[in-house]
Amino acid sequence: MKVRDATPFDMPEILDMLRQYRSQTPLLFLHDADDEIYVTRVLTEIMAGRGVALIAESDKIDGMLLAQVAPSGWSPKHLVMTEMAYWMNPDARGSSGGYRLLAAYVEHGQALKDSGRISAFFISKMVNSPDLQYQKFGFNKLEEFWVI
Question: How far apart are CA 5 and CA 65, in angstroms?
Answer without folding.
Answer: 10
